[in-house]
Design a protein that fits this description.
alpha+beta, single chain, two-stranded antiparallel sheet
Length: 84
């Protein structure tokens, strides 16, 4: 799964420095679609997506997109935050 991150999240301590919540990813940042949230897709995930797209094209199925790699309930807005 792609990495979802924010400069407000301390992964070592497991807290959101912006909201003071003891959870990362911070549910409040996610709910408000915080503008600092970034999504990083690894080269391996990009390769997997390309293979899925090729397979779908051969089998005349819907072509998968980056959204298919993200949590379904937040895929639309997270897809706009992909940095790599």
């Amino acid at each position: 799964m792609p990495e979802i991150d924010s400069p407000h999240w301390d992964w070592i301590l497991g807290v959101c420095k912006k909201h003071g919540l003891p959870q990362v990813p911070c549910p409040e940042c996610m709910a408000t679609r915080d503008s600092d949230i970034e999504v990083t897709i690894s080269s391996k995930e990009k390769e997997i997506l390309e293979n899925m797209q090729a397979f779908a094209a051969i089998n005349e199925e819907p072509i998968p997109t980056v959204k298919d790699l993200l949590p379904a309930d937040q895929a639309d807005w997270l897809a706009t935050r992909v940095v790599s």
